[in-house]
Amino acid sequence: MNLAQAIVGAPGARQRRAIAKAITLLESTRGDHRAQADELLTELLPHTGKAFRLGISGVPGVGKSTFIEALGLYLIAQGHRVAVLAIDPSSTVSGGSILGDKTRMEHLSVHAQAYIRPSPSSGTLGGVAAKTRESMLVCEAAGYDVVIVETVGVGQSETAVAGMTDMFVLMQLPNAGDDLQAIKKGVMELADLVVINKADLDPDAATRARAQITSALRILGQHGNPDHAHHDATLWHPQVLQLSALKVQGVEAFWQAVGEFRRLQEAGGRLQSRRKHQALAWMWERIDSGLKRAFRQAPAVKALLPQLTNEVEHGLLAASTAARRLLDAMHEGTRGGPSAN
Amino acid sequence: MNLAQAIVGAPGARQRRAIAKAITLLESTRGDHRAQADELLTELLPHTGKAFRLGISGVPGVGKSTFIEALGLYLIAQGHRVAVLAIDPSSTVSGGSILGDKTRMEHLSVHAQAYIRPSPSSGTLGGVAAKTRESMLVCEAAGYDVVIVETVGVGQSETAVAGMTDMFVLMQLPNAGDDLQAIKKGVMELADLVVINKADLDPDAATRARAQITSALRILGQHGNPDHAHHDATLWHPQVLQLSALKVQGVEAFWQAVGEFRRLQEAGGRLQSRRKHQALAWMWERIDSGLKRAFRQAPAVKALLPQLTNEVEHGLLAASTAARRLLDAMHEGTRGGPSAN
Known about the structure:
Two copies of one chain form a homodimer.
Chain A: H1 3-8, H2 13-27, H3 31-44, E1 52-58, H4 64-77, E2 82-87, H5 91-94, E3 114-117, H6 125-141, E4 146-152, H7 157-162, E5 167-172, H8 178-184, E6 193-196, H9 203-221, E7 239-242, H10 251-267, H11 270-297, H12 299-313, H13 319-335
Parallel strand pairs in A: 1-4, 1-5, 2-3, 2-4, 5-6, 6-7
Helix pairs in contact in A: 2-6, 12-13
């Protein structure tokens, strides 16, 4: 039976196996698998795009799993089907993975209306992100109408998640300084919504954190992102919510805020333009990544790189001269003749 | 007479003309000029590296020119020779340039011991930065022992300047929120020293700003940059100074702080490792830029790109599939045969 048909077909064990098989195919590095995966994606694409894509980021310990479990079960009770994917760049080093331990979401992970997939555990961040985007499309084609992409606050993974979701949520603890870290990493700026978790443990600290983050969002919004411009009632202004994932307090208010965001984004045509922009950015990111890989694998480059690197490090060769020599060498090697420039 | 010899030769009108000629050559886009420029750089390189490279960044109106004029004249009085270069990405759009109006530094610009060069007014930020780096090497070979690279707070230009200098100074106004903007842009994190200018206009605001920035630097330094680690007496901790460039107050204290930073960096071997790291990063940045240019100029890519872009935008083709097709097309076009993958 055709894999694409099984994916877009009726929910159940067969669909679930087909999804798993498709994602394994997407994550394979074999050339023939890659060709099959491309074919599959092209078949599935007309069935994608109807889900709401929700990104959730936060440092380890902030309570992401607890929150996603509570949110996922709430959404399923409302009639949704929920897929949860993860991007964890550190798993490519450790071999481990967030979500790898499914007991972290013990009820959601066994639910028939949920699909949970851990982070790919090999590849660069760009590669991991690409596989997760593609897995997201598979889940959408299978009719999951809420796709949650989770990431820990490591490196550039938040940017990758914000770049593939309709709404990006930052989870924070009510600790002083956490907001500055998020601002520094450029993550606060990406947030459509900030959630302060564990607000029940220290209500005063949570209130202070909320005031600080609200003020920071206002100041950050004054420059830069035109989406945050004022005097336009159709525009969303980033909000700060307090909740307790453990006590399942605030989940409904959270989903209401998501709904309001979604309504404004769709009404303003910004949902579609955000997705277009994301798809093109993704294409260019993959192109850049492919160009770099081809460069590093070119025999002429492999032969020259160690020596030129050494000369640049020791100040014997200008870096820009070394770059030009390497580029010329690659083009000569590829063309089998002298370089045009 | 040989250009390189004139540059490393005695200071004076001839040297000044040779520098100008060399920089014009570096900024040329003609292929034969580029080859000559590479030759020249290789000749000059053994004479470079002895200057202290100081980066200064700040938003328009912060008083950079006034400060650099005051600092430059102070340094010349101490026996230094001072070169001032600029990176202004906006000049590539407007055709204008910071430093273009030399009357902004009316005394420094006419001084025999100073060399001032405006920002290259064409090219990408990467290209502009590369030319400025090369110009910096020319100035060093000519015996300028303090090279100041100035930039306005636009786009990624601060990162470029921090990536080519030994010390990166951020100029701020004593306004609430300015520090958050700098943190957001990742510039605060790059700063080895923060200067609050116009401190005399509102001493209370300046004191508040200093306390806020000091606190932010401390919090930001707790994570990330190992150079900011504590419990090591040879390590520099980013400082915050108040000054008034207009009244020439605080310039000497500024230069003392620079000297202390330089002493610690040299003693710890960090100056050399920073420069090595910068040179390699520059090489890779130029390689990436060259790869992208070659991709965009490839006939097969030019032929396919509009259609594939359109299909990706409209959700008819997965972005990663489009990327692979374009990369394959480029390689086939170059090799004159079918792609290996």
